[in-house]
Specification:
The complex is a heterodimer of chains A (about 400) and B (about 90).
Chain A (H helix, E strand, L loop, with lengths): L9 E8 L10 H16 L8 E5 L6 H8 L6 E5 L8 H12 L4 E9 L24 H6 L7 H16 L3 H16 L13 H6 L2 E4 L2 E2 L8 E10 H4 L7 E8 L20 H13 L9 E4 L4 H10 L8 H6 L16 H4 L6 H12 L11 E6 L2 E6 L2
Parallel strand pairs in A: 2-3, 2-4, 9-10
Antiparallel strand pairs in A: 1-7, 1-8, 4-7, 5-6, 8-11, 10-11
Helix pairs in contact in A: 1-2, 6-10
Chain B lengths: L17 E10 L11 E8 L4 E5 L13 E8 L5 E7 L5
Antiparallel strand pairs in B: 1-2, 1-4, 2-3, 4-5
Classes of the chains: A alpha/beta (about 400), B mainly beta (about 90).
């Protein structure tokens, strides 16, 4: 694959979202419509300008319903990204590829979710496949559930325990990352964690979800809401309302023997192989330098995978994330300010796409916890990711 | 399909039922009425090289160890089937 073909060719021209809550009181379709309309307006476009759609395979909003609700006139291309939340940043790779290929001009990427108030809570105990789970037929359903491993926390906990074992990582090490995320969330009015300070002691005293790796406060917040992005060519974006946020590299990696959240069959579970492959795509073939990354938005469904991704992406050595975090590197003045909206743990869980929203805001200069003039930001979710930048 | 040789032939093979704990997760929450909590979920690397997700039934949480030798036993299910679970190995390797 020649990742260079995508380099700087496309840009995020608009972003939109709903409020993030525990009870939206309206359907995912309506949430998607609201977020998309906000994003299109943000870009200075109208619904008639949109000719491409991309979402997650697990998103419940169906394309034809969306078209007739928002008032899109002619959609020429659409796609969905697999891998659950790990596929979230694949929305960017799919959109960029379609635009570079010339099969769509302006693509809307979206995710609408009622992870808290929906028919099944996202972290609830599931004992049967749901039609939109994306896990149907995988080991998550066939082999994990009969054994009482019913939730993403239980599946990822197996990987996290092995990681702790390999490198002497403790729950406090995860907690120090959570404290930083919650510090960002504390000053973000859109966040679940707004004005809710949290200490390491609070973290340690929160109840076990999965021992010895995941306390309650290591978990993201099941959230209702939607996020939408408008993506077009960099050339067209330059003429639109907002400062363009270029997509300098984007990729989605799927490896042999990987599963979705129940990823238990690669040889060494203490390393996130998908993120290693992603980093090679972005920083190797993608042509971006890791040293250029000013900040990162990293999928933190549970805190252990934040540390594991820091290592797999090459921001520190294997087993060194605990020290990287303890040294304050995720903070505003650290080496890699991270999840400055509070992350999925502190802000809310729009299945990862709110991390892209935050990256765009940081690059435009209008984030609530604004960093000092960031130019290049990495957004990743396990095996999918992108490098976003502005001039 | 076998991902190594593309064969579609399937046969049953009896394994030793022995292996070691590769990782574990002690599930406390959320709770489902079908299980007794906490549920000890383990990944067992079987001697034959297969990794299996299962339960460890006779070990207190504080005594769980990665690398612990384990052996299989089968537990009947409500549907008249049986599932493999594991306990600490009692016979020498």
């Amino acid at each position: 694959m020649n990742g260079q073909a995508l380099r700087g060719a496309t840009a995020i021209a608009g972003v939109g979202c709903t409020e993030f809550s525990r009870r939206a009181g309206r359907t995912e379709l309506q949430l998607a419509c609201e977020a998309i309309t906000a994003a299109v307006t943000d870009a200075g476009l109208t619904a008639a300008d949109i000719d491409g759609l991309v979402s997650y395979t697990v998103d419940p909003v169906e394309e034809t319903e969306l078209v007739r609700s928002v008032g899109f006139q002619e959609i020429n291309w659409s796609s969905r990204v697999p891998y659950g939340g790990g596929g979230s940043m694949g929305v960017l790779a799919h959109a960029a590829a379609a635009i570079v290929a010339g099969i769509a001009d302006v693509v809307v990427g979206y995710r609408a979710i009622r992870a808290r108030s929906g028919a099944t809570r996202f972290g609830g105990a599931k004992v049967a496949p749901s039609p939109s789970s994306g896990h149907s037929g995988t080991t998550a359903m066939q082999w994990a559930m009969p054994m009482g491993a019913l939730t993403p926390a239980s599946w990822m906990g197996l990987n996290a325990t092995r990681y702790m074992h390999e490198f002497g990582v403790t729950s406090e090490d995860f907690g120090r990352a959570v404290v930083q995320l919650r510090a960002y969330a504390e000053t973000n009015p859109a966040a679940w964690g707004y004005q809710r300070p949290m200490t390491l002691e609070d973290h340690q005293l929160s109840r076990w979800i999965v021992e010895p790796c995941i306390h309650l406060f290591d978990c993201c917040q099941e959230t209702d809401g939607a996020v939408a992005l408008v993506i077009t060519s960099a050339e067209r974006a330059a003429d639109l309302r907002q400062v363009p946020v270029r997509i300098d590299a984007a990729s989605a990696a799927g490896l042999f023997d990987q599963e979705i959240a129940s990823d238990h069959y690669r040889a060494d579970l203490s390393v996130m192989d998908g993120s290693v492959a992603l980093a090679e795509q972005l920083f190797g073939r993608g042509g971006v330098s890791r040293a250029d990354i000013d900040a990162a938005m990293i999928y933190d469904a549970f805190s252990p995978i934040l540390l594991m991704q820091l290592e797999a992406l090459g921001f520190c050595g294997r087993g060194e994330a605990k020290d990287f975090v303890a040294d304050g590197n995720l903070a505003p003045l650290g080496a890699l300010p991270c999840n400055t909206n509070g992350g999925l743990i502190g802000e809310g869980y729009i299945h990862g796409l709110n991390l892209v929203l935050e990256a765009v805001r940081q690059l435009r200069g209008d984030a609530v916890n604004q960093l000092d003039d960031p130019r290049t930001i990495l957004v990743t979710a396990s095996r999918t990711g992108a490098v976003l930048a502005r001039d | 399909m076998c991902p190594y040789c593309r064969s579609l032939a399937v046969e049953l093979a009896e394994l030793s039922g022995r292996g070691v704990v590769y990782s574990y997760a002690v599930v406390h929450h959320p709770q489902h009425p079908a299980f007794e909590y906490p549920v000890v979920v383990v990944l067992v690397d079987l001697d034959e090289g297969v990794r299996l997700l299962s339960n460890l039934t006779d070990v207190a949480t504080r005594d769980l160890r990665i690398g612990m030798p384990v052996e299989v036993h089968f537990v009947p299910t409500a549907g008249g089937m049986a599932v493999p679970q594991f306990h600490q190995a009692t016979t020498p390797a």
